[in-house]
Amino acid sequence: MNKPTPAFYLQALPGTFGAVVTDISLARLGEQEFAELYAAWLDYALLIFPGQHLDDAEQVAFARRFGDLVEGLEAAEISNVLPDGSLRDAPDDDMMKIIRGNMHWHQDNTYMPIQAKGAVFSARVVPKSQGDTAFADMRAAWASLDKSTQQKLTSLSAYHSLVHSQRELGEDTKSEDSEYIGYGLDVEEVPLRPLVKVHPETGQPTLAVGRHAYGIPGLSAAESANLLADLIDFSVGDDSRVHQHRWRAGDVVVWDNRCLMHRACPWDYAEPRVMLHSRIAGDPQTEKALTQPASKEIKNADD
Q1: What pLDDT shows up at residue 275?
Q2: Could you give the CA distance from residue 83 to residue 233 in angstroms, rounded to a whole number?
Q3: Gap between the Cα atoms of 170 and 208, Å rounded
Q4: What is the dihedral of CA 197, 198, 201, 203, to 10 degrees?
Q5: Three-state secondary structure readout of the chain
Q6: Whole-prediction pTM
Q7: CA distance to 53, 148, 219, 268, per residue, from 153 (Å)
């Protein structure tokens, strides 16, 4: 039987993942249209929708179709613009510390007890140049590793901490008396996650690293840091596994956080950049961290 023609136009990106979707209104999706879109999302992992111009409520409604949203991050503005319209320029501004930290490859919520499923991200105000968001296909990265490395990694896990990753960059962030809400900075038990993740819906193995990962049990701190850095470099070292999206106001993207890394790209902070982030909560059955407690040495690294 022939498959029905999708109610939208999808153009695959030239690499291993991602697609641009047009001829669609995200604010007015029917059930069948969304089912087709969700299937495409699982396949491509990154869907880009130019010129949607969703308002906050429309974005939240669209994001909720993928699952529950992370409390407090249903519609979080990520911006270098202060409430009075001026631009953030203080070097100790905690929001800018988080923005700068997110310019390093990562996956969302790996430092929380439950990793995020994905995210919907839209552009409200974009700088004249730069300020892109880059994505990396960790399914393809895993598949490109040699068999001996794959075998080695299947038995390894790493701890994940936002406190640790910010500190490593010299971007320590305080959770009190700050415009940053402190999300991720007060986690009591440092999550431990395998370096190899099996996608719960597709069954595909994926390499699970990023800036929040550190402290692999069984390795020294130096060995762990070197291995994790090498794996990130390998993952993004082939252009076919990376896509960098140049934003235009009104663009919307949705990505699968279970198999992609991402990072913000620098821009001239003298120009405003305003984005809206809706984080899709992970399924506790599949995105929960391992239960092994952190050692005293690992906990002390975050003190």
Answers
A1: 98
A2: 37
A3: 24
A4: 160
A5: CCCCCCCCEEEECCCCCCEEEECCCHHHCCHHHHHHHHHHHHHHCEEEECCCCCCHHHHHHHHHCCCCECCCCCCEEEECECCCCCECCCCCCHHHHHHHHCCCCECCCCCCCECCCEEEEEEEECCCCCCCEEEEEHHHHHHHCCHHHHHHHCCCEEEECHHHHHHHCCCCCCCCCCCCCCCCCCCCCCCEEECEEECCCCCCEEECCCCCEECCCCCCHHHHHHHHHHHHHHHCCCHHHEEEECCCCCCEEEEECCCEEEEECCCCCCCCCEEEEEEECCCHHHHECECCCCCHHHHHHCC
A6: 0.93
A7: 42, 9, 12, 39
C-beta of residue 120 within 8 angstroms of C-beta of residue 254: yes
pLDDT at 178: 63
Taking the chain (303 residues) in runs of 10, the rounded mean pLDDT of each run is 68 98 97 97 98 98 98 96 90 89 97 97 97 98 98 97 95 69 85 98 98 97 98 98 98 98 96 98 96 54 51
pLDDT score recorded for residue 92: 81
pLDDT of residue 183: 87
- Cα 110 to Cα 160: distance, rounded to the nearest angstrom: 6
CA distance linking residue 293 with residue 237, whole number of Å: 33
CA distance readout (Å), 168 to 17, 62, 164, 225: 30, 35, 6, 11
Q: What is the pLDDT of residue 173?
A: 75
Neighbours of 124 (CB within 10 A): 21
